[in-house]
Amino acid sequence: xxxxxxxxxxxxxxxxxxxxxxxxxxxxxxxxxxxxxxxxxxxxxxxxxxxxxxxxxxxxxxxxxxxxxxxxxxxxxxxxxxxxxxxxxxxxxxxxxxxxxxxxxxxxxxxxxxxxxxxxxxxxxxxxxxxxxxxxxxxxxxxxxxxxxxxxxxxxxxxxxxxxxxxxxxxxxxxxxxxxxxxxxxxxxxxxxxxxxxxxxxxxxxxxxxxxxxxxxxxxxxxxxxxxxxxxxxxxxxxxxxxxxxxxxxxxxxxxxxxxxxxxxxxxxxxxxxxxxxxxxxxxxxxxxxxxxxxxxxxxxxxxxxxxxxxxxxxxxxxxxxxxxxxxxxxxxxxxxxxxxxxxxxxxxxxxxxxxxxxxxxxxxxxxxxxxxxxxxxxxxxxxxxxxxxxxxxxxxxxxxxxxxxxxxxxxxxxxxxxxxxxxxxxxxxxxxxxxxxxxxxxxxxxxxxxxxxxxxxxxxxxxxxxxxxxxxxxxxxxxxxxxxxxxxxxxxxxxxxxxxxxxxxxxxxxxxxxxxxxxxxxxxxx
Amino acid sequence: xxxxxxxxxxxxxxxxxxxxxxxxxxxxxxxxxxxxxxxxxxxxxxxxxxxxxxxxxxxxxxxxxxxxxxxxxxxxxxxxxxxxxxxxxxxxxxxxxxxxxxxxxxxxxxxxxxxxxxxxxxxxxxxxxxxxxxxxxxxxxxxxxxxxxxxxxxxxxxxxxxxxxxxxxxxxxxxxxxxxxxxxxxxxxxxxxxxxxxxxxxxxxxxxxxxxxxxxxxxxxxxxxxxxxxxxxxxxxxxxxxxxxxxxxxxxxxxxxxxxxxxxxxxxxxxxxxxxxxxxx
Lengths: 527, 281
Description:
The complex is a heterodimer of chains A (527) and B (281). With 527 residues, chain A is mainly α. Chain A has 22 helices and 2 strands. Chain B is of the alpha+beta class and 281 residues long. Chain B has a single domain, classed as Porin (Beta Barrel). In chain B, 23% of the residues lie in helices and 50% in strands. Chain B is built from 4 helices and 15 strands. The N and C termini of chain B lie far apart (53 Å). Classes of the chains: A mainly alpha (527), B alpha+beta (281). The A-B interface holds A 295-296, 299, 329-330, 484-490, 492-496, 498-513, 516-520 and B 31-32, 35-36, 38-39, 46-58, 60, 62, 94-96, 159, 161, 163, 166, 169, 280.
């Protein structure tokens, strides 16, 4: 009897669980249908809320999968990239057994492209690549190539050059990621991110040319235009490096230098790549013994227009040019200014590094340091340099996206009144906090490297100064004057024809003259 | 009188614009002076860097046409005054040389305020002279013009540029021009509130001018110029006496008078640059 009662209780419990499960399944099925209808009606906010509710009912696997994808796709449609990423990630980590694995990979790749993310999403996909290779190989070829670009870029960032080559070479012409892949391949062929690897210039040129042939000169897409300019700079650098290895007087050297200069000059004025092209021009002109033009390029870089650019090495280059022309007093002036300018920056940056900010505080410290009025932060020139770093920009954009989405989930009336709003606000804020730490670590690391670079520059300035002192001593021993030279304005320059205008530089800022400056340099060396 | 006052207002606008341009130029010159001071500092240290910019012109004129509609008003209005419309068509054969066909049409309001008629007007000084002093200027000085047309050559020796608080940027050029043409002569004095209108004549006219064009973009510029139209004018009583009535003759001085008139005018308007397929690239 007892036994019977016990059996009866067990049966009752089992029945209760069965009935509950049955009702739960039925409820889930109803809700998922409603969510799908909302999605199909493009009411993505309500669709997201309903898919989210389905997930919370612990539905059976088939409904769960559909709800996960529906939720991710709804956020994707709402351009809530971080939220979409979270749910696509949930699907992707399950692997190819998940019915929406392919769709999740496509979603992740699209988000990576949209937010230019090359650190978070690759780290989601990379670990599951090998285990799901056969499923991934079945993807649409266009999507697979886009995925390969994301992974190739990630591999290159990690220094896995062979992996990067494999991924990037699989991206075919016509694919949206082709030009970007070719650019990275060009960098790899130049030996970027590799130690003791000889550059392969012909291969690099082939890749850079492919970028230039793929992107039209008058493309409306600014990112594409920038990539094209970077490829042009890449070819210019390759020509310059090859020329530098040749003996002076070699016609091939002259040809390569001229080619390099022409490429640098072809970068559109006021474009994003223009400051770099001016700096590269300055070096190429110097090596080509065109000192006046080299100083002119440096003069442009020193204009207030480029106040947020930081090319500290340009000061040493100016000193070197004066040195080549035996203008010792000018060398001493530039070297003195360089030390006076950079030594305090190095000292201040070192003090901040020693102070040791909390990792997440570096982000706010950098932001406040970009404001010139802050005198106790990171020196503004260094802060600008870090803020212009491509990797920093990507990470900062990612952080801002998290902030934006936290704000949406907090303030959007539809989301704010539901559990999804609270949960995803917490998710965005927690991720933001965690990511601030990562970004802070990056800023700290960049501050160290820029400080070290500045320190090296002042050291090199000291070496130039030492060389100059030696030369001055030799001159004095030969009875030559080393200072007190009177230099008058030299004759006006050659003006090609009436389609050109000529202006003296009077110390004024004229934006239209940038890139056209030139000095007349008269050597003061004795034969 | 209303017309004349209105005319004077127009003239004041021209003068005002001229003053603005002058003050602007002066501020530019002020900048230059500042720069010179800086150069002087360098000069005192005995070390001057020779730095310059050689840049391709932002806009090229060679091979383009330029069409300029302008408002024109005479400046030396002693006994007569003129205002009207000036139209000029230029072809820039080189960057700094242009051939120009230009014409002016002078208009003045009818006394009845019913509309405009061609020609100039007598100044209030002339009217006052007649009413208060019972005097009249020499007849030749009352001759007016209905229109003038000339073929000119323009030379642009100076191109410059300007910025305004570092925000806007434009270029301007200074030009001089000269040419020859014809002008119509009109004799229509108002004596005792009655007009004496004699047949029109023609006179040769030479002009000399200088001006400035401010370019705001590649195809439109503000143009301001001053021109001196020089023409030999004559009032030949012996020629006209047969064609006037004795009443009219009684109101006119009975002697011929001559002068070489310097008709100074200011013109302001727009210049539209019309490119051609063969323009300078």
